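Structure catalogue
Derive tokens from sequence
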Amino acid sequence: MPGSSRLPVSLRETFNARARSARGQQLAALNVDLLRNIVFVLFVLRWTRKLFYQLKGRGITGSVVEVYMYARRTLYGIFLRLPGVRTKVQTQVAETILKLEQKLVPSGPGVLRITSLPAEGWSEEEVRKKLNELAEMEHTRWEDGRVSGAVYHGGEELMRLQTEAFGKFTVANPIHPDVFPGVRKMEAEVVAMVLSLFNAPEGACGVTTSGGTESILMACLSARNKAYHERGVTEPEMILPETAHTAFRKACEYFKIKLHIVAVKAPSYKVHLPSVSRLINPNTVLLVGSAPNFPHGIIDDISGLSKLAYKKKIPLHVDCCLGSFIIPMLPKAGFDFEPFDFKLKGVTSISCDTHKYGFAPKGNSTVLYRSDVYRKYQYFISPDWSGGVYASPSIAGSRPGALIAGCWASLVKQGQNGYIDACHKIVGGMKKIEGAIRERPELSSDLKIIGRPLVSVVSFLSNTLDIYDIADGMNEKGWHLNALQSPPAIHVAVTLPIIAAVDQLIADLIEVVEDVKDQERKRIAEGKGAKGAIKGDTAALYGVAGSLPNKSVVVDLAKGFLDTLYKA
């Protein structure tokens, strides 16, 4: 066209290419900005959600207290790591551990330490002689009923029967049910018998485990896995009373479950249901109650927890490891009881130690489920291993069939009548101790029962005396009672061996309380104050533990104790 000008084709193409490139860059920049904004929004939503549930669960005041406690622990931990302080603390910890080692590890002339295999095997007589020496090493006399809990002895006759059962199934391993069909049958029957004690519905099931801790671990693992597979929960959380067994804390550490601890409040010392309800959120995989708890022997409000769990469609685990075969026998023995088992429709799993008041050999427990909907999530199955298809019901692979045989023999030997009789004796013994502390003026003026115990454990504290001085005084008289903290207290878990020693326990407790009071009166008269220097091990350990905002020193002492156990 006359008067018009056109760009050469090469220049036009270059211009268009540059324009397309600029538009592409602009679009890429927009996409990056959009992605950045999406990530930012998701980040804000995530932490807003966390903040919402934190404030819902703990409230503003509770959240501020948590932040304060965290800061206090952190700062005290930094203080303990300062060069001068750290050296002094490490020296004191080392001295304490050395004293512990001297107490626990035999030493001196004449002490045989076996640290390698004998060049030639010993004769049977030599082995028997050494076994007798080991059995007779100086120890707290549980045989005389001087140990709280620990030894759940069913009598000499039952022990002989258990030993015989061991002998028949020494090499048995339930991982090979075709090789040891008798063990498979006994294990299934043990589970069935325990289920029947806890009013299990049709379709209920369970497995045996090595002890209460494994039973609790399996219940927590099942709940976590169920929530992951059915609800897509990737950040699981668990809510439990502060008095629930520490195995639940172990499960949270092992299986990466966030832990929410709920206070138990006086005078009932039961879990506070409103606090539990506020802490529930979409990540909650399990609620927990105890029947009874280990520290105080108190049964939580399982009915209330059940209603809450059923309404929120969250599994509820009831820990009956300590209640064992005593708590289901309470109504049959004519004692007061509270509902706690599968009769409550919100209860989905129960742990019960057959090696406590079932009097089975140590290393026996059960975890029970309302249905296989829950149990299947604790199984481990590896279908593509080169060694073949592998499946195990719990943590262990190989398991001792001899222990299962000993458990089965104990249950069928005792029968319902045997366990009801044991319930009469054990709960009766607990009530005798409780009555003495509540009613005898020599004790009631200084000691106070915690809550309303119904099973085998009675716990007491003091508002006028140092309870750990009382614990150490009882230790000096040959008793091995359980010291507690938060609040400082002592508990007695009554067993069959303790029954014959209850009167002596009460008499010694009266004497020790009077002695502690007398010591305090003397110190006050001398102008030294009521509290004297720490003398006993219990007062030393728990006095330190209770005074430190950061427990790292106590952790170091506990590690040292565990290390000492493996020194030959």
In short: The first helix runs from residue 9 to 80.
